[in-house]
């Protein structure tokens, strides 16, 4: 295995010139466009690259392996932590009826997982790292995960990383809004649920 040259984007982004940031964003967009062009499996299963369970903080607070899920409807059940859809805002209820194509998803995209190197022609992306969470997920997933990561890292707000995410990954504003709205409900278990059924429960197929 070769070591990817360069430094972590998280360490240098804030001090880059605007032209360099534009160039880095364009290069990353090209990488994600290539990922999206990979044909998905015929199965609607939401799963890892090998067809097995996936690991994701959106699905399990302690990063346990989850799934695979039969389809997006089954995944939505886990995102709601098995709460009935009627427990949610009408916007959330409407979103549960939407279907998104499955795409090859990094599932942990953030500046800490991008390697860059300064060259005479400017900064270049040398690689995207940490693919252990990758798999086949709905097309909105990488965007929402990237925005959520930004919200959890206060320093990012100082240099407007969130403002660059839509230039790299196709934005999905409704799922982003749903994530925030649904979180107000799923942080607590259902009143009629067993003791172990709550935020950390893994939903099995």
TrEMBL record:
Protein's organism: Armillaria borealis
Record-linked InterPro entries: AGP_Transferase, Aminoglycoside_PTrfase, Kinase-like_dom_sf
Keyword check for Ribonucleoprotein: no
Taxonomy, superkingdom: Eukaryota
Recorded GO MF terms: kinase activity
Pfam families linked: APH (PF01636)
Protein name (record): Kinase-like domain-containing protein
Keywords: Kinase, Transferase
Residue ranges with Basic and acidic residues bias: 189-205
Region (Disordered), start-end ranges: 180-205
Residue ranges constituting the Aminoglycoside phosphotransferase domain according to the UniProt record: 1-149
UniProt key word Ubl conjugation: no
